[in-house]
């Protein structure tokens, strides 16, 4: 059983998220509250959840809540519900530890897909959000001639990361670089290992935090 907590001040949005959660197999409610203050007022045992959903939000209020929750419950996976298009907020949320994103008004199948991915330790971004987010990013100096440093990317690995950040699939990357899908997968495994990440969202997080970006 996966226990979900929800922090949302708008009754309609809270009801939508809660209904979606209760209609998802293998999910049970841990808590619901309208603010971080309300969350903190809960008994400590009631605040424990496998996944915590915050939103919808268009500003830093929800983001600050996520940061504080991540410090208190580092083992809980975080999902943010977004209102409108705000890629900059998404970038900041990724840095705050968010691994799943949904737009307000999401459908039940989309909610189920998000929960399934997050439960499995994977990240979740809708295809549209991925495209818009990746288009913001541009990497410079992602490789170095000094091969003695294992944490630095080769030129080919850097090329693949650049294409990932533009929203290319592995198949599209292979076609663009004239290499096989299998070769792309092998390069990507090495990239993940070098950067100590295990998903594309966490790769973005690493890039945002550690590398020189032009947004």
From TrEMBL:
Q: Which Pfam family, any one of them, does this sequence belong to?
A: GerE
Q: Name one GO molecular function term.
A: DNA binding
Q: Name one GO biological process term.
A: regulation of DNA-templated transcription
> Keyword Ligase on this protein?
no
Keyword tags: DNA-binding, Transcription, Transcription regulation
Show the InterPro entries listed in the entry: CheY-like_superfamily (IPR011006), Sig_transdc_resp-reg_C-effctor (IPR016032), Tscrpt_reg_LuxR_C (IPR000792), WH-like_DNA-bd_sf (IPR036388)
Which residues does the UniProt record annotate as the domain HTH luxR-type?
Answer: 146-211
Q: What is this protein called?
A: Response regulator transcription factor
Instruction: Please name the source species.
Output: Filimonas effusa
**Lineage, uppermost ranks:** Bacteria, Pseudomonadati, Bacteroidota, Chitinophagia, Chitinophagales
């Amino acid at each position: 059983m996966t226990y979900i907590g929800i922090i949302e001040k708008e009754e309609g949005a809270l009801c939508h998220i809660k209904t979606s959660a209760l209609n998802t197999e293998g999910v049970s409610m841990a808590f619901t509250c309208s603010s971080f203050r309300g969350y903190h007022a809960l008994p400590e045992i009631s605040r424990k959840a496998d996944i915590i959903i915050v939103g919808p939000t268009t500003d830093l209020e929800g983001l600050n809540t996520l940061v504080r929750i991540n410090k208190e419950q580092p083992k809980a996976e975080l999902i943010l519900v977004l209102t409108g298009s705000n890629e900059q907020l998404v970038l900041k949320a990724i840095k705050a530890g968010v691994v799943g994103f949904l737009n307000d008004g999401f459908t039940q199948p989309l909610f189920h897909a998000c929960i399934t991915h997050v439960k499995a330790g994977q990240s979740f971004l809708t295809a549209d959000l991925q495209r818009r987010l990746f288009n913001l990013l541009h990497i410079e100096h992602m490789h170095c001639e000094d091969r003695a440093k294992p944490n630095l990317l080769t030129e080919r690995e850097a090329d693949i990361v650049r294409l990932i950040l533009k929203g290319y699939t592995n198949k599209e990357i292979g076609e663009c670089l004239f290499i096989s899908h299998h070769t792309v997968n092998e390069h990507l495994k090495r990239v993940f290992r070098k950067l100590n990440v295990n998903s594309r969202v966490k790769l973005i997080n690493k890039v945002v935090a550690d590398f020189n970006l032009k947004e």
